[in-house]
Design brief:
By secondary structure, the protein is α+β, with helices and mostly antiparallel strands. It has two domains: 157 residues, Beta-lactamase, CATH 3.40.710; 132 residues, Beta-lactamase (3-Layer(aba) Sandwich), CATH 3.40.710.10. Helix content is 46%, strand content 12%. A five-stranded antiparallel β-sheet has the order 3-2-9-8-7. β8 and β9 form a beta hairpin. The protein binds 6-diazenyl-5-OXO-L-norleucine.
């Protein structure tokens, strides 16, 4: 293997120099306060090594990256029945778009766009109070990363709830089609809180390692079957960057999921997971330099799945 630490150091140095950092998300006011100059990257290899560079120990809001983990939990609860309520196709639309829902019976195209993740949150509620479902998600993240210090940033959750009019619209619209079992408020409560989980690159890479290691977590536990890990990765590749998924696959070629906090989690089958963070976003709401960093990493290490 090429000198991975050297490659990561080089990427972090290059990214800190760049001016074209994209724009920090501002539609969730609390996210607009983040310093756009930050850049971190971490790789958790299946052989157990963890390598980092830049601001890899600094926490950020994982936002939509959390959808990978809520999907994993929900599949564990209801199995393939989940696919009766959520599709598995790329949407070709922004993450908060409502247009397809009208013609598609209130069934979101995939679990990574906002309406899909709100249905997944509804599945995780399963008759419980949001507090219990949120607690279960947080415990899952701590278990996967083997790190009890992971927390929810309640200010981010409150900021998103206060301004989440589109997500409310999506939830209410799906409720009208009968695709939410609970009230929109309860499903959104779970959704806003899991998006507000704060983690650093090291923790996120460790948490996502099971995807690269046939379902086995960093702590050596079997979290999901190898087949399920493969299928979740397939969805990340096809849908993980919304209407930017094709371009991401073209440039990077690694199954990955982005979030508007500027984080991206990627999984290289049989090799390891990688988490990158740079808060500035491109036009699709995906980290601008995070994407470039992964493109450079995939090229240097020959990590594209293609
Ligand atoms: O619902 C929202 O808008 C945010 N909590 C999450 C969106 C997100 O991360 C989209 N990612 N690029």
């Amino acid at each position: 293997m090429a000198d991975l630490q050297g490659v990561l150091d080089e990427i972090a140095a290059e990214m800190s120099e760049r001016r074209d950092r994209g724009a920090v998300a501002s539609y969730i006011p609390q996210l607009a306060r983040v310093d756009p100059a930050r850049f971190g990257i971490a790789v958790a290899l299946v052989d157990g090594r963890v390598l980092t560079a830049g601001d890899a120990e600094e926490s950020f809001s994982i936002q939509s990256v959390s959808k990978v983990f809520t999907l994993t939990l929900a599949l564990g609860k209801v199995g393939d029945a989940l696919w009766r309520r959520v599709g598995r196709e790329p949407s070709g639309n922004p993450f908060n778009s409502i247009v397809q829902l009208e013609h598609e019976g209130g069934v979101p195209r995939n679990p990574f766009i906002n309406p899909g993740a709100i249905v997944v949150a509804d599945i995780l509620l399963a008759g419980h109070q949001p507090r219990e479902a949120i607690g279960e998600i947080l415990r899952f993240m701590r278990f996967l990363a083997d790190d009890d210090s992971i927390v929810i940033d309640h200010q981010v959750a409150a900021s998103e709830r206060a301004t989440g009019f589109r997500n409310s619209a999506l939830a209410n619209y799906m409720k009208s089609f009968g695709n939410l079992d609970h009230s929109p408020e309860l499903a959104l409560g779970v959704y806003f809180h899991h998006c507000a989980i704060a983690m650093n690159c090291r923790q996120l890479a460790l948490a996502g390692r099971f995807l690269a290691d046939r379902g086995r977590s960093a702590g050596g536990h079997t979290v999901v079957s190898a087949e399920r890990a493969r299928r979740i990765s397939a969805l990340m590749l096809t849908c993980g960057h919304y209407d930017g998924s094709g371009d991401f696959a073209f440039r990077v070629g690694i199954p990955a999921k982005s979030g508007v906090g500027g984080g991206i989690l990627g999984a290289v089958p049989g090799v390891g997971s990688v988490a990158v963070w740079s808060p500035g976003l491109n036009a699709h709401g995906n980290s601008q330099l995070g994407t470039l960093a992964l493109e450079n990493l995939a090229r240097a290490m020959n990590w594209s799945v293609f």
